[in-house]
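Hi R.,

Here are the chain sequences for the assembly we discussed:
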Amino acid sequence: MRTVLTSPTKATSVPGRPVPGNNKRRSKLNLGLPGIIWVLAVCAIPTAVMLGTSFFTYEGASVTGPVTLENYTDLFSDSYFRSVLLDTVWMAAAVGVICLILGTLVAHFLVRSNSRLRGLVILLVILPLVSSVVVRTYGWLVLLENGGLINSVAMDLGLIDAPIAFIGSRFAVIIGLVHVLLPFSVFTIMSSLQGVDSSLERASRDLGAGPVATFRRITIPLIAPGLISGFILTFTISIGAYATVAVLGGGSLQTLAVLVRERMVTSLEWGQAAAIAAIILVIGAFVVGLLLSFSRKTRIPGVSE
Amino acid sequence: MRRRKGPTTVFALALTVLLSACTSTATSSDIDGDVLVVEGYGAEYAEIFNEVIAEPFKSETGITVEYQGSGSATQRYAKILASRGDPDFDLTILTDVELYQGKSDELLAPVTEEDVPNLDKQPQKLREAAHGFGAIQDVQYVSLMFNKKLFSSPPRSWKVLSEPKYRNGALIFNPSGMLGVHQILLSADMAGGGINDTQPGFTQLAKLASYAAGTPGTSAEAVPFMERGEATVFPYLDGRAAIYSKTTDYDFTLPKEGSYGLLGALGMPAESPNKEAGYKLMNFWLRPDIQKQWAESYNVGPAISGIEFSPEFTEKHIVTPESLERIKIADPGTVQENRTDWSKQWSESVR
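And here is the predicted structure of the full complex:
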């Protein structure tokens, strides 16, 4: 039987009766309205207030003077702030890259392997998400501190003479953040990998490519959108992370989020705190924009995301 | 035709949730009438406050004190600032630095001898430190905490912090808390500088940083270093120092060069609707019998003169006018003005 598809006829309005198309639109708007109000109230309006605050200088709670770029010029002319900015971006990028590599390996194992260990690995990946970030971070503190498990075992085995000062180092913060953020990376890459036809990889193997070459030349290009999404998520969360840095940074490691807290609560410089928060936002948005544009340019025709 | 109620109900529900999220957790019944909401430190401070201040105060006046224990004095002042003098508490525990800030910002209520008659029992030094916008209720000082196993007799000078024998295991406090600020000032004093010339202090701290056992942000964060016996010598407030001198191998002393004081202060937000009850609590806290109980329970010096303490207590805390003269009160204006710069210099010195 042949099915003929015809374009839907235009709804004709009958006086006194509601137009079906208009009703549909109104109903969709009604459904979306609570969500729109919620996003506006908890995200858009506070962000706008924060951005606005960054263009004013404050004396206590009172605004002094007109709209100004003073907060930004003060920050960028300060070598200390520039070094904290570079440090933060560097650490966030390192966390993003490590999560990307580990996430790809774990996701590949979970999607392509038939091993009985898959259940256990999924459980291990999900575990960090079911406990509080503060609890997880304090777990790392117990492991990494001078008298912690890692230093104690290393000293007992004679590998080191004195404890290594992990706490307060970038290493400790990166480890803590990778632990917290790895699930985001694994799940985004997994969803991409599940959309890749495994016959393409088998075809590559049949044509003589080894497993590494197949992974590099076939799998990675096909899952690139998932890799990019995973990196974006982990990078943008790490760049504004506070709790992990505050605990594992040992009080001596400064990042942009720690500076926001310090300017907001300790030195009560709200304009500068808002400017630093805006800079975090801009860096995140810039990286998202850059990677999404790269993703569009490298998209393989005919392959759905 | 029946109207579909689904979207409207969802919308109403979302709006209700939104409005409830925007309202304060404090209800009007919390703030008005015979309930005074006080916000201060948590943990043992809250317990002692309820036992020594809140319960006897209620028995005498019928006013219930609802105590909320959270955060630091700077965080509580930030709340006053954010709410422009109208936070969800009537009275709060601050330090002399926040009282100064509250006076400058006009966000704290003035406190006079007429409002709080027991202020007339305070030494002039403490009354001046309140700037007329609060009441000092206790005196702590930065003591030198030391590991008893390493010393046959208590160290007598702050210089012990940089001695090769003890510097491995010293602690350097972050200036996000006043203890860190005082350590910067002490280092500056020891190196020939002072509050207006802190650079020599940062040079000293930078040298010490490569040997230090840690850089705690708060006094509570120093506790694990004592429990594990890792810390050698470090500055510590006498209130907590007294607690841990009983439970660990550490003891504390006031070095010969003297030290800096940290003044516990009561501040009332300018828009508090319960000012009368707030003044009554301030006056109650400054009563000699309550001052003695508070000082002995929290291991701090009293804020009024003429109270008798045991010789052991007198030896360890700022109790007499003579011992009060041995501690300096850092000028809060200079501290506030330089705090951001000091934080930067500190971070650069210790990293």
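The first strand of chain B starts at residue 35 and ends at 40. Chain B is about 45% helix and 15% strand.

Let me know if anything looks off.

Best,
T.
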